[in-house]
Structure formats: structure tokens, C-alpha cells
Design a protein that fits this description.
Bound molecules: S-adenosylmethionine
Order of helices and strands: HHHHEHEHEEHEEEHEE
Strand content: 15-25%
CATH topology: Rossmann fold
Number of domains: 1
Structural class: alpha/beta
Shape: globular
Helix content: 25-40%
Number of helices: 8
Largest sheet: 7 strands, mixed
CATH class: Alpha Beta
CATH architecture: 3-Layer(aba) Sandwich
Distance between the termini: 27 Å
CATH superfamily: Vaccinia Virus protein VP39
Radius of gyration: 17 Å
Number of strands: 9
């Protein structure tokens, strides 16, 4: 459904945020997502906690933003995938990039819009509503980790599809093993998948990228996991992983 760009609205600030302009919009879309794509309670949690989540202090990510910026041409167009309340979308704009924020939580997109993020799209990162080769970069901070690990390749292949040769990818995920549901103090749950460094690099490479930089950051306040920061570019041949994948 979301491959059809006619159904997607990229809205200016102050306008409605909608993935489809039909009366069936939200409820139907949520049921459909759960049936077809397995989207889970994580998005419901973000919708419920959107105002609080938007008000939290975010990490400056100065080093990550600077590294990503250097990989993008001047005025390049980038997607902030899983943009949440848009803090990093605005930080990338402040660095001279054109940014489209994409998220599955309408609650968080509304927060992003209220905070001044202009171009927003409600969609699933596993099915990006954009043409092939349309973007210079994908900034994927702390969002891929909400997919079951079996579905990470689908999202990574979508990032590869929308990026041209040489297109840049930033992925930030939590270091660790396995997957789990994590409840906050009020019982609102989010799903997390954790990755080992070699595992996330292998997945990125298998999707047609070359990892060119990266580092491990310590957990933020109240967190348990290190952050794996990976920077990659689309391989020139764009083809198969050396392993034959
Ligand atoms: C931990 S927040 C990170 C937000 C922002 N990138 C940041 O670093 O502050 C994870 C975000 O990913 C979004 N998300 C989770 N699963 C998604 C999916 N399948 N497609 C698009 N967005 C998704 C959530 O709605 C949420 O906004």
C-alpha cells in the first residue's frame, strides 16, 4: 500500500499528518499493520507516551550527526527513519540538509510537527513509501531495534532501495543478545532487539552496504546497553554480499 506515493502525504508544518486520506485511516491501518506486518504494541506505547517522550532530554549525538553530515552532499535529502518527535530531524536540518521524518507513531509525528519539523510521513520502515534511489541518506537512530531481528533485513533492504549508489546510512542500535519486551514503571511495553557488533555489521553488509565507520557509546542515564553506531555507504556494485547473499 505504501509503495504508492499517491497515498502518502508529506505535509507542511500546521497541516494534517496522514498516511492515507481515507475515512478508514487510523483504526483500519493499525489493524492491517498488525495482521500483515506484525506491528506490535510498541507503537501504541509511543502513541500513548508521545507528549512525555517528546519532552525528554535527548542525547546530543554531536559526533554521530557530524559524521553523518559529512557523508551527505550539500543540501542533500535524507530520511530520518523512526524520527520520533523529530529532534534529530531538526538537528540535521540545522546542518543544512533537507530532511523527511518518517515514523509509525502518529502521536510522535504530531509532537514533531508541533515542534516545527516540516516534512513528515507516517509509514513503516519495512515498506518505505518512496521511489527507488530518491534519497542521499538514511538516519536510523534507535528505531531499527524495535523490529524483531528476523525483520531487520526487510528494513535494511528498503533503506538500500531508496538510496542511490554512495548513499549514506547511519544505524544506532543497542548492544546485546536476544530480544525482549520492556515495560516502563506504568506497565507500557516496548519491544527491543539487541545486536552484537559483528551481527549488525553483517546484516548491513548483506543489504548491499559497506560499513565505513562506527564506534560504541556507553549507555545513557538509566540505560543498560551500550550503543552500536554504524555508518555505511551503498556499495558501488550495489549487489550481493561477499558471502553470496
Ligand atoms: C526510541 S524512538 C527513537 C526516536 C528518534 N529516532 C530518537 O532517536 O530520538 C523509536 C522510534 O521508532 C519508531 N518506530 C518503531 N517501529 C517503527 C517502524 N516499524 N516503522 C517506523 N517507525 C518505527 C517509533 O515510533 C519511535 O518513534
Amino acid at each position: 500500500m505504501y509503495r504508492d506515493a499517491r497515498h502518502v502525504q508529506i505535509v507542511p508544518s500546521g497541516g494534517p499528518i496522514s498516511a492515507r486520506k481515507t475515512p478508514l485511516n487510523r483504526g483500519f491501518r493499525r489493524v492491517l499493520y498488525r495482521m500483515l506486518l506484525g506491528v506490535d504494541e510498541t507503537i501504541t506505547t509511543y502513541d500513548r507516551l508521545a507528549a512525555r517522550y517528546a519532552a525528554r532530554t535527548t542525547y546530543p549525538l554531536e559526533r554521530e550527526l557530524t559524521c553523518f553530515r559529512r557523508m551527505i552532499p550539500t543540501s542533500g535529502l535524507v530520511l530520518d527513519v523512526g524520527c520520533g518527535a523529530g529532534q534529530y530531524a531538526r538537528a540535521l536540518e540545522a546542518r543544512g540538509l533537507r530532511v523527511v521524518g518518517l515514523d509509525l507513531s502518529l502521536g510522535l509525528l504530531r509532537q514533531a510537527q508541533a515542534a516545527g519539523t516540516d516534512r513528515l510521513v507516517c509509514a513503516d520502515m519495512r515498506c518505505l513509501p518512496f521511489a527507488d534511489d530518491c534519497s542521499d541518506g538514511c538516519f536510523v537512530c534507535a528505531s531499527l531495534l524495535h523490529l524483531p531481528r528476523t525483520q531487520a533485513p526487510k528494513a535494511l533492504s528498503e533503506f538500500r532501495r531508496v538510496l542511490g549508489t554512495g548513499g549514506a546510512l547511519y544505524i544506532g542500535v543497542k548492544e546485546g543478545e536476544g530480544e525482549e519486551w520492556v515495560a516502563d514503571q506504568e506497565g507500557y511495553e516496548r519491544f527491543f532487539a539487541y545486536y552484537r557488533l559483528e551481527e549488525i555489521d553483517w546484516l548491513i553488509q548483506a543489504a548491499g552496504f559497506e560499513v565505513v565507520d562506527g564506534w560504541i557509546s556507553p549507555p545513557g542515564a538509566g540505560q543498560r546497553h551500550n550503543w552500536l553506531n554504524r555508518f555505511a555507504v551503498v556499495r558501488a556494485c550495489g549487489g550481493a554480499h561477499p558471502s553470496g547473499l
